[in-house]
Specification:
Blueprint (H helix, E strand, L loop, with lengths): L2 E5 L4 H12 L3 E6 L16 E4 L15 E4 L6 H4 L3 H21 L4 E4 L1 E2 L22 H16 L5 E7 L1 E3 L10 H12 L1 E4 L6 E6 H13 L2 H4 L2 E5 L5 E3 H11 L4 E4 L15 H6 L9 H14 L9 H4 L1 H10 L12
Parallel strand pairs: 1-2, 1-4, 2-3, 4-5, 5-7, 6-7, 7-11, 8-10, 9-13
Antiparallel strand pairs: 10-12
The structure holds nicotinamide-adenine-dinucleotide (NAD).
The site of nicotinamide-adenine-dinucleotide has 28 residues, from α1 and β8.
Length: 342
């Protein structure tokens, strides 16, 4: 697997993955509609071939020259999915299945789909695994469940479908996001010396650093097909299920002057689940975690301080995905179906 197409290549995970693939000598092509082209933190000037296209409009793109597709492009979190639930289905589910069918028809050997543990929603079970009942609470989570189920049907001995169900991601990427729980708490701690917590701090969430996840996507390119084909695999580390209060404690240790304020309101995000990664560990025994939360938090805080990240940088039009999209719509840069207006 040398010639790789990465959709969503200009996103938070994509930017880190592209760099790692290039470093390792893969021939990389990206495909992205570039919603977040200005959401850059630090220096970012990647040199790779980019197809600027919407994943809903790929009919004329020749896929036969690729060995594998890593499919990241999506409305990529719960709030974005709620902009328009039909649109979420069109981009996250329908376009995914159309892309996979086209890839299979044109001879691509492997299709890696970026699913999400958020489809576990709220779970009363102690710890969920791949056999647990899913509980998708949002259009986003439902689009992940539907895509997984349909992609399983497309898999066969010539077309390997990998279904990593990823933990919530955190850490530094040059295409930065501060709408992810850890990043959001850290940017607030650095810029305001205050963190506002919109829950009682008890919800559980499995977390993974973006650089560790990018390495795992590359591992999926290289693992034998018979071990993973058509199977869902939770992606994360067993000691990386955290409660929000644990995250706060780690940040407080590193930004000691920061005040934590529990607002008493109940935020929109009601998810809480703990996940088992035993299957991942058994299939990828040599994959090690390089960026545990403490190390990644220290690294992000150092980078933000060096860049003199301040209150003005917290402007939601910078690193908050739903706000960036809403702004593009209100400025009539993109239409309500999220196509660019030329
Ligand atoms: N970030 C997380 O915590 C997390 C966790 C689990 C799974 N995932 C999944 O991983 C994938 C990547 O996540 P991310 O955090 O990098 O998201 P992101 O929003 O930062 O990046 C997504 C990229 O896809 C592009 N895109 C969106 N719609 C498109 C379309 N119609 N056509 C072409 N390009 C389009 C965007 O421009 C963006 O660059 C998503 O599928 C997401 O659901 C993310």
């Amino acid at each position: 697997m040398r010639r790789i197409l990465v959709t969503g290549s200009d996103g938070y995970i994509g930017a880190v993955l592209i760099n790692k693939l290039l470093e390792k000598g893969y021939e990389v092509t990206g495909l992205d509609t570039l919603f977040f082209k200005n959401s850059i933190l630090g220096n970012y000037n990647p040199k790779y071939r980019l197809i600027k296209s919407d994943v809903r409009q790929i009919q004329n793109i020749n896929l036969s020259k690729f060995d594998a597709v890593i499919h990241l492009a999506a409305l990529s979190n719960d709030p974005m999915g709620e902009i328009d639930t039909v649109l979420t289905e069109e981009i996250n589910y329908k376009a995914t299945i159309d892309l996979a069918k086209k890839a299979k028809k044109e001879g691509i050997k492997r299709f890696i789909y970026s699913s999400s543990c958020s489809l576990y929603g709220v779970s009363k079970q102690e710890i969920v695994n791949e056999n647990s009942k899913v509980n998708p609470l949002t259009a986003y989570a439902k689009s992940k469940v539907d895509s997984e189920n349909e992609l399983k049907k497309i898999a066969d001995e010539k077309f390997c479908v990998c279904l990593p169900r990823n933990s919530t991601v955190f850490g530094y990427s040059p295409k930065f996001r501060d709408d992810l729980v850890v990043n959001n708490l850290i940017t607030s701690a650095v810029a305001l010396k205050k963190i506002f917590v919109k829950s009682d701090g008890t919800p559980w969430r499995p977390l993974i650093d973006v650089r560790d996840l990018a390495n795992i996507f590359i591992d999926f390119l290289n693992i034998d097909s018979y071990l993973v084909n058509g199977q869902v695999i939770n992606i994360g580390f067993n000691d990386s299920n955290y409660q929000v209060n644990d995250i706060l404690k780690i940040i407080k240790e590193q930004v000691p002057l920061c005040a934590v304020i529990y607002t008493g309101e109940h935020g929109a995000d009601t998810r809480s689940y703990r996940v088992s990664f035993d299957k991942f560990v058994s299939l990828f025994p040599s994959t090690k975690q390089e960026w545990p939360l403490q190390r990644s938090a220290r690294d992000l805080i150092d980078k933000l301080e060096k860049l003199m990240f301040s209150e003005k940088d917290l402007n939601p039009n910078n690193y908050n995905r739903i706000e960036v999209l809403k702004r593009l719509i209100s400025d009539e840069k993109i239409d309500k179906k999220l196509f660019w207006i030329h």
